[in-house]
Design brief:
The complex is a heterodimer. By secondary structure, chain A is mainly β. Helices cover 0% and strands 50% of the residues of chain A. By secondary structure, chain B is mostly beta strands. The chains are: A mainly beta, B mainly beta. Chains A and B meet through strand 5, strand 6, strand 10 and strand 11 of A and strand 4, strand 5, strand 9 and strand 10 of B.
């Protein structure tokens, strides 16, 4: 079955540091890949996505590139801010089926200190 | 615009008591609907999804059940809560037929079973 493995946290960085959160996946076919963010006390919001190999998703300074050869979708940001403190989830959607189920990683807690 | 509501926002229930969590979506018709649980240290787990009224698929066998009595209403229930049912419950929806295949999440319900 499908699975997503992401770097377990917590990750603690200083403001303006470089961020990488690793994510690798196992899936049949050609899944779509997502990063969701959950700010404290809130639900999940879509941060970025990529639907095919070599696509780069980007939003709010975050980027992730769909690497089929390494089955990875690592999240990066060049300079984090305190407001980026949140839990980040990597997820995939299988290419088949009509119900569009998402498979999530366990989440990575990021804390950015001023 | 579309919005998704969940209530209650927080709930504390004794072991063995019943449960009913409600999710409603506005501004869209015939969506796919999903219930996820986020347990401490375990990430997001898909519990149920529904592609239409009265159509429920269960992903994980457990003492929870789901119902969809109306097109935009999704209910999560239990007859007798267990301690292990504690967690953060998220409802999500997705429009059928769109290529973007994004799921939109509600604000969540935090359930504590004592």
């Amino acid at each position: 079955g499908n699975s997503v493995t992401q770097m377990e946290g917590p990750v603690t960085l200083s403001e303006e540091a470089f961020l990488t959160i690793n994510c690798t996946y196992t899936a049949t076919g050609y899944p779509s890949l997502f990063w969701y963010v959950q700010y404290p006390g809130e639900g999940l919001q879509l941060l970025l996505k990529a639907t095919k190999a070599d696509d780069k998703g980007s939003n709010k300074g975050f980027e992730a590139t769909y690497r089929k050869e390494t089955t990875s979708f690592h999240l990066e940001k060049g300079s984090v801010q305190v407001s980026d403190s949140a839990v980040y989830f990597c997820a995939l959607r299988d290419s088949g089926g009509s119900n569009y189920k998402l498979t999530f990683g366990k989440g990575t807690l990021l804390t950015v200190n001023p | 615009s579309q919005t998704i509501h969940q209530w209650p926002a927080t709930l504390v229930q004794p072991v063995g008591s019943p449960l009913s969590l409600e999710c409603t979506v506005e501004g869209t018709s015939n969506p796919n609907l999903y219930w996820y649980r986020q347990a401490a240290g375990r990430g997001l787990q898909l519990l149920f999804y529904s592609v239409g009224i009265g159509q429920i698929s269960s992903e994980v066998p457990q003492n929870l059940s789901a119902s969809r009595p109306q097109d935009r209403q999704f209910i999560l229930s239990s007859k007798k809560l267990l301690l292990s049912d504690s967690g953060f419950y998220l409802c999500a929806w997705r429009v059928k037929g769109l290529g973007t295949n994004e799921q939109f999440f509600g604000p969540g319900t935090r359930l504590t079973v004592l």
